[in-house]
Amino acid sequence: MKKMFQIAGEYYTLMLRVFRKPEKWGIFWKQFWFEAEKLIMASIPLIFIISIFIGAVIVIQTANNLVSPFIPKLYVGVMARESLVLEFCSTMVALILAGKIGSNISSEIGSMRITEQIDAMEIMGVNSANYLILPKIAATTIFSPALMLFSFFIGVVGGGMIIFFTEIITLAQYVEGLRFAFHKWYIFYSMIKMAVFCFIITSLSAYYGYYAKGGSLGVGRSSTQAIVVSSSLILVFDLALTKLLL
Question: Which of 5, 82, 134, 172 has CA 20 to 30 A from 121's CA?
Answer without folding.
Answer: 5
